[in-house]
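Incident log, structure service

09:12 report received: a user says their structure output differs between two submissions of the same chain.
09:20 pulled the input from the user's history:
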Amino acid sequence: MAFEGLSEKLQGVFQGLKGKGSLTETDINAAMREVKLALLEADVNFKVVKEFVASVKEKSLGEEVMASLTPGQQVIKIVNEELTELMGGAGSKLTYSPKGFTVYMMVGLQGTGKTTTCGKLANYLKKNGKNPMLCACDIYRPAAIDQLEVVGKAVDTPVFTMRDCKKPEKIALAAMKEAERKGCNVLIVDTAGRLQIDEELMEELVTLKSAVKPHEILLVVDALTGQDAVNAAEGFHEKLGIDGIIMTKMDGDSRGGAALSTKKVTGRPIKFVGMGEKFDALEPFHPERMASRILGMGDMLTLIEKAQEDYDEKKAIELERKIRKSSFTLEDFLEQMGQIKKMGGIGKVLDMMPGMGANNKAMKNMDMQKSEKEFAQMEAIIQSMTRKERENPSILNASRRRRISAGSGQPVSKINQLVKRYEESRKMMKRFMGKGGKMNRMFRGF
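09:34 re-ran on a clean worker, output below:
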């Protein structure tokens, strides 16, 4: 999970501050030492850490903070604001050409997931009403063109290729004409990468930039490479001039040093983060939401957006009716588990809820161990029940459970666990019913 290690450490530091009625300079100095160590362990750039800690310390020692009734909370508020600013302040949206036809030039080193990210970006643009085309300008890497064609097919997006041409700028110019002819309004240019930044690579990219005049140059970096990603971002920006960063593999980076350093080092914002392998796992980057999650304050806006995006409104209304009438069945429970699975699993949902981040590691780990396999097991168990049993699990006596066990291939203990989780889920959803029996909208997908 992104920032998990850093989040745990920072929340531990500030838990001690919140318990104090007043703070001394010694308390703040001790806390800042821990913050500094936590950031360095998260692989944040040393200069960035130094400036960040100095700024937080200066503001935390202000008279207004020291004299407040809750100085610990004030310090946390300052850290939250500084973290948000460090990652870019407000989120930076993708911009489009006012002329109506937009070209995005995707650049980066080999192995960062650039070609796959082209597909993810195309998928994102289609969801937002655009009609994109992909262009294969990586003429060096074996099977790069084939890979982009596979990606294009997966996201139902046309791919322009000129296999015999060895001039990327000619390919891109021809792609622009073809895209406009077909009625596409966005061209995503997949360029060649290298194992490291070199003059030959940069000259080729500069020539390509000059030819197609892209509206934005987006640099794809791998979050797992930490400071190497920051160095790559600095190098590309210095030689090419990038407009934004797409950080891949954020879901696998528990440290987060690259995300906390790149904006400060390059002056260019992170626009998207890759949060999984699927083509819909590209998310706009919101610094203020990420800072809030790091400090255990949750990210309710993203959670609501995910619920609205992934959940069927008609089914939500029907679910609400069933809960009000206490007719929520095991089939309904299975459907809700499927919706949570679409949102990334309970672990991801918990990560976005206030107070449910790093401090609930055991619960999240338990969810990670189950996910796909457990969902299949639950499905097999519920399908082995009669309609009467699904509608009223209280009739499941020992002999019925043995029959279901034989039919589903699952031990009786799994059936017991399923029934227990069903009962807990039913109780939880009743608690989330608001005034007048109306379920809070964001919890309809649970």
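09:41 both user submissions now match this output. Likely a transient worker issue. Closing.
09:42 reviewer note: The beta strands are 102-107, 132-137, 159-160, 186-191, 216-222, 244-248, 270-274, 282-284. The first strand starts at residue 102 and ends at 107.
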